[in-house]
Amino acid sequence: MDQLTSLLGGFSVALEPINLLWLLIGAVLGTAVGVLPGLGSAMAVALLLPVTFALDPTGAFIMFASIYFGGLFGDSTAGILLNTPGNSSAIATTFEGHRMARDGRAAKALGTSAIGAFIGGTIATTAVVFLAPYLATVASLFGPAEYFALAAFAFVAISSVVAESVVRGLTALGLGLLITLVGIDQASGAQRFTMGAPALFDGISIIVVTLGLLAIGEVLYVGSRIRRERSRTGTLAIGGGSPFLRGAEWRKALPAFLRGTSFGLPFGVIPVGGSEVPTFLAYGTEKRLAQRRRDPDFGTRGAIQGVAGPEAAGNATAGTAMGALLALGLPTSATAAMMLAAFQQYGMQPGPLLFERSADLVWPLIASLFLGLVILLVLNLPFAAVWAKLLVIPRHYLYAGITVVAMLGVYAIASSTLDLWLLLAIGVIGVVMRRFEIPLAPVLIAAILGPLAETELRRALAVSEGDPSVLVGSPITVVLYAVMAAAVAISAVQHLRHARRDARQRVGAR
């Protein structure tokens, strides 16, 4: 009851007209920045941090709360429409979302994304209100061995589930892990595969990898097949339709919303770098369920569940990440780290005492998270069809624009021409992978989590003085490895069944 009383007090502050204005401005700015490749909510908070010094702390953090979720929706908008996610958290949504856009259901995909963001974020923020005192217990259970087991679980689960062939999935995983080896070895300081180029000392940016595989790879792949498609229309797809879900679509999407939210809730407390792991796990789960029910749309025309699950997971992770930041002072994502910097700029240190010492700031901030989600839903759901009109642009103009925006986004990060050449090279690799039906998701998840897995593995072995038994020395690691083995076994059996069924169908056709 104390939490409810405090939350109602927070709403009374957040609903003041001036604070509602900051919420609206933050939602618009967050969405706009999130659409740009290579940027996102973390960059939006960083760019606007100096601007907010003129505001009182309550107004500043209320604006940041709206930017926080607005950037996530902007990331997904770019991914769905242009196959160019604004940030890595939107990669999993992009797979089925862009297929829906190409099939003429862009507005539906954007509407599903907006609803999923609202549901996942609202449930997570509600959990923060009541469970913030208990978040420390969850976070304290994970050490280096647990983090490595979690990364390994994500590697194998994604590789075995999202690919039609386990071999192709593991091949893609290996390619992603090779990319992570480029740069300075954090433990020894030795150069690895840098060829003496100082620009590679920090490794290959995940933004370069993402835009290379998804954006430039798509542009080059479509360009290589343009002669085969001359009979088709000159536009990518018709961007019409309603963004609102009908009864049958709600029945499909609602379970996926809830499954995605259940993936995202715990990951916001665990510092694994952001929402990439739960969004990929949610996508893999929806793909596995689609194979079980033999859904012909998943992986072809685009399935609504493939957007609903990852989007809810990403926003649920963002919601509980805010709870971990406020209650523990633990930033579990890049955006949360920027929020921590903003707190410190105002002379406040998030942690267990924050709710006592700065309750007049914390509860309006939490209330503004709820209001920001509502504002984003009201803004973006009706305008989803307007966003979708981007797809009416003639194909050659659209893909030229995607290339220019991707190049500018990559160059803006480090002003490195080498990054542009890497972007093109990875784009060519993306074309080859599409040609031989090698999945992209394992490459991306390996590139994102590879450094974390390596660091935590070395840390665990250093603590145990080289004893590998430390990797299975806790109940959490044992459970994760057991679930991983079961997922691989089930996936292998399913692949064998599908292969046998296809073989019988080919024999019957003869």
TrEMBL record:
<feature type="transmembrane region" description="Helical">
    <location>
        <begin position="109"/>
        <end position="132"/>
    </location>
</feature>
<feature type="transmembrane region" description="Helical">
    <location>
        <begin position="324"/>
        <end position="343"/>
    </location>
</feature>
<protein>
    <recommendedName>
        <fullName>DUF112 domain-containing protein</fullName>
    </recommendedName>
</protein>
<feature type="transmembrane region" description="Helical">
    <location>
        <begin position="204"/>
        <end position="223"/>
    </location>
</feature>
<feature type="domain" description="DUF112">
    <location>
        <begin position="20"/>
        <end position="444"/>
    </location>
</feature>
<feature type="transmembrane region" description="Helical">
    <location>
        <begin position="397"/>
        <end position="414"/>
    </location>
</feature>
<feature type="transmembrane region" description="Helical">
    <location>
        <begin position="473"/>
        <end position="496"/>
    </location>
</feature>
<dbReference type="Pfam" id="PF01970">
    <property type="entry name" value="TctA"/>
</dbReference>
<keyword id="KW-0472">Membrane</keyword>
<feature type="transmembrane region" description="Helical">
    <location>
        <begin position="61"/>
        <end position="82"/>
    </location>
</feature>
<feature type="transmembrane region" description="Helical">
    <location>
        <begin position="165"/>
        <end position="184"/>
    </location>
</feature>
<feature type="transmembrane region" description="Helical">
    <location>
        <begin position="363"/>
        <end position="385"/>
    </location>
</feature>
<feature type="transmembrane region" description="Helical">
    <location>
        <begin position="20"/>
        <end position="49"/>
    </location>
</feature>
<keyword id="KW-0812">Transmembrane</keyword>
<feature type="transmembrane region" description="Helical">
    <location>
        <begin position="138"/>
        <end position="158"/>
    </location>
</feature>
<dbReference type="InterPro" id="IPR002823">
    <property type="entry name" value="DUF112_TM"/>
</dbReference>
<keyword id="KW-1133">Transmembrane helix</keyword>
